[in-house]
Amino acid sequence: MGRVLSVNAREFEEWMQRSLAACEAALDGFVPIDAPVGLGVAMRYAVLDGGKRLRPLLVLATCEAVDGDREAAMRAACAVELIHAYSLVHDDMPCMDDDVLRRGKPTVHVQFGEAQAMLAGDAMQALAFDVLTPDSGVAPALQARLCALLARSAGHAGMAGGQAIDLASVGLSLDEATLRDMHRRKTGVLLQASVMMGAACAETPARATAALAEYGAALGLAFQVVDDILDVTQDSEVLGKTAGKDQDANKPTYVSLMGLEPARALAQELRCQAQQALADSGLPNTAWLSMLADMVVERDN
Q1: Which residues of the chain have pLDDT under 50?
Q2: What is the C-alpha to C-alpha distance for residues 264 and 199, in angstroms, rounded to an integer?
Q3: Owning domain of residue 76
Q4: Is residue 4 part of a domain?
Q5: Chain centroid, CA 42 distance in Å
Q6: Which SS3 state, helix, strand or coil, does residue 260 take?
């Protein structure tokens, strides 16, 4: 396997903290507190001061790898996090997964009520596309490309479709191909889109674009496989959400399908695929992307 640029963990941590701080500041500016009758408060509760921010980090790391437009990338990073946050708010509601804990605190519908949670999710989804379409600073063609990538990953062919399959699969025995398709749609496509949005911020060569798409696909599935593993190996305090939820709800997962150790082996295999894709990209500076792939597989929450 080819080698990607190696940097030490301290440099990566410093880059990550700078990126997270910049993203948090941008989100703080984009998400209004003065929306009517407390809606802004619920929105800010849902998206600020919590979460791993993996999707924004993927956007920003890919933009750096292709030497892209930094302003466009930061807007894309915030937009994809808004979409992710809205999806969590809706997924946690009683009509779907009925969860009470998210990011170590009560879910939005528990804190603010079901109607306000639904509206907060709706508003964040709309705000994501508002953030991607400023009056100036980002070329119209790039705005359109970023909006298309995000919309396609979040809609019926991606995240929403995956959640529909997930809800319809409770109590069923799925084969690996069907489970993979569900996870690809529900989780993987938005993670892959984060990478592709970063790549869209530059005139990225076709070879590198294809390799980055392979990287995003492998990392997206690895993320969900690890999530399935953590659901049965960690407690709620570490996860920041209800542990054992999938098992209790009789949902199909990689652990229930193939067992714990084979699932762990699959996560490692997917990490190798992601790293190989980076090596095949021809890009000289994929260090942050490489270390993000390691972080996804090695995380404990």
Answers
A1: 1-5
A2: 29
A3: 9-298
A4: no
A5: 21
A6: helix
